[in-house]
Amino acid sequence: MMQKQKNMKHGAAGLFFLFGLLFFVLICRFLYIQVTGTAGGEVLASKIDKKYEKKQVIEAKRGSILDTKGEVIAEDTSSYILRAVLSEKEPEHVKDPEKTAKELAKYIDMDEQDIYERLTKKGAYQVEFGSAGKDLTQVVKQKIEKLELPGITFGRTNKRFYPNGIFASHLIGYVEKDEETGEMAGKFGIEKYLNKELQETDGKLTYDSDSWGFLLPDKKEKVVAPDNGNDVMLTIDKKIQTFLEDSMSKVQEKYDPEQIIAIVSNPKTGEIVAMGQRPTFHPTTKVGLTDTWRNLAIEETFEPGSTMKTFTLAAAVEEGVFNPNESFVAGTYKAGSGKIGDHSGIERGKSMTFLEGVQRSSNVAFATLAMDKIGADTFREYLTKFGFDKKTGIDLPNEITGKIQYKYKLEKVTTSFGQGSTVTPIQQIQAASAIANDGKMMRPYVIKSISDQDTGKTLKTTKPKVTGQPISAETAKQVRDYLETVISAKKGTGKKYAIDGYQVAGKTGTAQIAGPTGRYLEGKNNYVFSFLGMAPKDDPQLVMYVAVKQPKLGVSYVGADPLSEIFNPVMQNSLQYLNIKPSEVKKQKANKIKDYTNQTESSAVTELKELGYDVSTIGSGRKVLDQSPKAGSVLLQGEKIILRTEGEMKVPDMKGWSLRDVMKLAKVGKLDLKTEGAGYVSKQSLEAGKKVNEGETFNIELSQPDGAGEDIPTIEKTE
């Protein structure tokens, strides 16, 4: 018993010693902390400050991108994230989950039960509502706030907004969060090219708080102000760009081409007022972006085809060697070891004037001008003067330049009509400005100015720049006059580009496409069809280039159809929008045709011609037996009327006739018509002037009237 008590005393003494030692250690630790102010290598005061120091980000706004009149193309807008505080430790937390779920379901795209389950999630301090609770507008936020639901809060974030959707997308570009920095940055187009100008820097708010997060008494907030990005104003005109986007979308839907490229510029300044392409993409959703990453207007080179003849003609006029009334022999042109042929509609060996060669887009005419009239070396100098040797210097990233192939005789010849050598669309726009702007060639540009977002102060302005004067003002005027006849002349290849009220000067183009083997592709659709035009002819306010690659053309369609369905509405609507007054162009009248049967052929022809109609007669008698179109039909002046008279029928020369007019003849002559191709008559099986009987079969061959074949060279090897 005594031993047991003794042991207990020893145990108690041990415990007393142990607790005493621990207490001593704690006292020492306390004294150390009090003296040094540190624990575990950290300054405690700093640690406490950090614990109660609160930081908030003050979001800055990225600069906006504006059109030439200040309309928004891209801007930062505020969006909101819905949150619910569940922790009962917070004064403001969700107190009635059932009511809160019922009310929120009215404003976000989430089922009431799903909301309730989130609001009753055990152990959660705070919850969000997935995609349904993100990107909420200011209007929705305000409606929810009016409900005064306890515990419901919002987070704000800036979102890049493109109000026009698909709108010059490859020019404007898009922004995306940088994975390394976490900041929003431009990834394409102007958004990337001017990222440093547009880029914002967030500010921050720092303050000392109590355990509830409120500012402590006698403490001040520390604010670092946000730095908003600069605004960028472009030369793009929203209205004209919209005209262009709408027309391209319609053509894309109708013809499903591989590519569409279009540029509209102000030739007086070099400002690009519209630029677009297909395929394209939506800058918000990125749908379509993988179809092409390139801005085709500045990053695509191809053989231009006959639009290049614009500059060959200008060089010839400037050198004083273009005589519009001088004749040359059509058909072929010898080039080194080969011969160049064309499809101008004139038989080989026959003559035509150089002006008609321009109108018909004769490759032989332009080869003769470049090689025999101007001279190969001098012509090469003009290619440099028109800027085809180098980049235009447009203020966009990734511009490339074409390549002039000019070593061998054949290359020199083919370059004169746009084959063999390559250029970019923007190079053609720059070169065409010299034709439209009285000889002065203007550098194209898209950035009009950069300004401070907060003060509106202009920081930078782009001034128009003359990059050369390859031709004189007088030459430019003459070239425009000649190119206007490409549209207005009866045999002109650009008739489809005529615009009511405005005279258009321009040139069609049809470029062959090299296949994987290096040989040109064959087939009706395997071309780049293009048109380079300007209006009004006497004082051009706009220059427009359109190219459509490999459209799916039906039997009755030609290359000019998709092109004119873009060029015509865009040019006409734009000129009207810019208040460019229409010229005094004599309008065609429409008349209802009367019945000429049983009248004499001479009186019927005289009357119809006085009314402005093109009359053809089959038959050798005096009395009219039939007519097409029939009496009562409404026809425009200039349309063809076929009269059938008594006596034997003789076949007229139908070269250049439309299929519609040939069908009129077949109807009144009761002939069996067989056709091949599309466009205008290039060949007929029955010789002109020969007798033909009712029921007889005759064949006609139609060829493209618009440049969809007329300027494609045939290269023949000679021994």
Structural notes for this entry:
The protein is α+β, with helices and mostly antiparallel strands and 719 residues long. It folds into 3 domains: 55-234, Penicillin-binding protein 2a (Domain 2) (Alpha-Beta Complex), CATH 3.90.1310; 261-496 and 503-508, Beta-lactamase; 590-703, Trypsin Inhibitor V, Chain A (2-Layer Sandwich). Helix content is 30%, strand content 24%. Strands 4, 5, 6, 7, 12, 20 and 21 form a 7-stranded mixed beta sheet that branches. Strands 14-13-25-24-23 form a 5-stranded antiparallel beta sheet, with helices on both faces. A 3-stranded antiparallel beta sheet has the order 3-10-11. Strand 13 (259-265) and strand 14 form a beta hairpin.
End-to-end distance, in Å? Answer: 138 Å
Return Rg in Å. 39 Å
| Overall tally of domains | 3
Largest sheet: 7 strands, mixed
How many runs of DSSP E, i.e. beta strands? 36
CATH superfamily of the largest domain: DD-peptidase/beta-lactamase superfamily
Residues in helices, as a percent range: 25-40%
The CATH topology of the largest domain is what? Answer: Beta-lactamase
Outline type: elongated
Query: For the record, what CATH class of the largest domain applies?
Result: Alpha Beta
CATH architecture classification of the largest domain: 3-Layer(aba) Sandwich
